[in-house]
Each structure stands twice: as structure tokens, then as C-alpha cells.
Amino acid sequence: MASGKVPRSLNDHLVPPYTESASESKPMTTPDAPPQNFSVADEIRFVLDGISYPAIRRLRWGFDDGVLVLVGVVSSYHQKQIVCSAVMKVAAIRQIVDQMEVCDATADGGDSAQRQPD
Predict the structure, then answer these.
(1) CA 14 – CA 66 distance, rounded (Å)
(2) What are residue 96's phi and psi, to 5 degrees?
(3) CB pairs under 8 A, 24+ apart, for 50-57?
(4) Number of domains in the chain
(5) Inside any domain, residue 3
(6) Tens digits of residue pLDDT in 45-71
(7) Could you tell me what percentage of the chain is helix, strand and coil, using 3-state DSSP and rounding each to the nearest 5?
(8) What is the pLDDT of residues 31-40, one digit of tens each?
(9) CB–CB of 24/107 below 8 Å?
(10) Residue 92: inside a domain, yes or no?
(11) What's the gap between Cα 103 and its chain centre?
């Protein structure tokens, strides 16, 4: 897991958060691995879609030349670890730039978010 500045080429091309209509058009696959003909982007989507936390479905990401940039807000440091561990299974990813923020919306009853240090 690496942290750092988002390469300019990726910052302009982040994949938008998960949408229901996008997932409905995907072919059904086994939960263990994506089909052989999936592109790297399809593999990343497949891995992220397999994680059940709602906050993860709102993440944005970009991939270029082996570098995956993850941007967005998750509910816990544990979720950050789950995301990073899951995407590391994609063979084409050589480096992860983790720009996810941890924000616990339940810390004060859910009315406002409290940021937690990384």
C-alpha cells in the first residue's frame, strides 16, 4: 500500500462511484474470480463490488500503468484495509495510491461526520 500524490493523468480520469444501473448490465460471475476476458478496470470493479460495505461503493478510482488511485470516504480504518487488500489481488496493480479518508458518521449520532486520523 502506497500513499502519495495522484498522478495528473489519473486525477482527471477517476471512475465515478458505483451505480445500480452499471452493475445490472454486468454479466453474472462466480464470486471467486472474474472471467478471463475481463479488462483490468473490470477486474477492479469486480473486486470492489464484492465488498459489502456501502461506503466502498461510493469510492472513485483510477488506474494507469500499474498504479491504482483510490479516492473517497470510508467509515473505518478497517474498511480501508479491506479495500487495499482486495484490490491487491488484481495482478496488474503494482502500486496503490490510497487517498481514502476515514469518516465515522456514527460518532455523534450520525448528524455530522467526525474524521479519524489515518
Answers:
(1) 15
(2) -115, 125
(3) 50/86, 51/82, 51/83, 51/86, 53/79, 53/82, 55/79, 56/82, 56/83, 57/17, 57/18
(4) 1
(5) no
(6) 999 999 989 889 899 999 999 999 999
(7) 30, 25, 45
(8) 555 566 779 9
(9) no
(10) yes
(11) 15
Neighbours of 67 (CB within 10 A): 18
Residue 114 CA to residue 105 CA, distance in Å, equals 6
- Cell numbers at residue 82, please? 479491506
Which residue carries 472474474 as its cell?
Answer: 34
Domain assignment present for 1: no
Residue indicated by cell numbers 480504518: 77
Task: Check if the beta carbon of residue 57 is closer than 8 Å to that of residue 18.
Answer: yes
Question: By residue range, what is the domain housing residue 84?
Answer: 8-115
C-alpha distances out from residue 55 to 18, 23, 42, 65, Å: 10, 16, 19, 26
| Per-residue model confidence (pLDDT) at position 32 | 59
